[in-house]
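Treating backbone geometry as a discrete language has practical consequences that deserve illustration. In the encoding step, the backbone of a single protein was reduced to a row of integers, each denoting a local shape. The amino acid sequence and the backbone structure tokens for this protein are reproduced below.
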Amino acid sequence: MAKEVITSAILVMVSVIAAVTFVNAILPSVYGLSESYNSVAHNMEDQFKTDLDIIFIYPEDNNVSVWIKNVGSSNIPLSKLQYCDVFILSSSNYWNPGFESNSTPSWEYTFENGDGDTWDRGETIKAAISLDSLPSDIYQITFFLYNGVSTSDTFSK
């Protein structure tokens, strides 16, 4: 009978140790998974609150001026505009100007009706795009923000 009590006690201790080890192995993974879901949810919220609209395009010689309005509910940090992309497509060519590049094609921005460190709702920036050449054609311009939100429009020269 004493053997059975000792055996049962050893089995209970081994079971408790196994359960604690299992919880210690699984809990960090579950915590890490919840952090991943929180990060994805935050990124999706950022995308849902962000929206842009191209309000005017003016091509002149080898330059294109594009006025873009923040029509979303989020404020866009100006420091993130360096991570944005501009694409200009035609039937025979495409350009992807670099942000504030020393060579063409390049693009830079100026505030038209705002100031500060953020591009707030209702404010407009003017993107000035310099190209090597811009022959007469029909073009599509697409502006991509750092978070994947984009706006497109067409123009002709």
Summary: The chain is about 30% helix and 35% strand. The helical segments are 2-49. The first helix runs from residue 2 to 49.
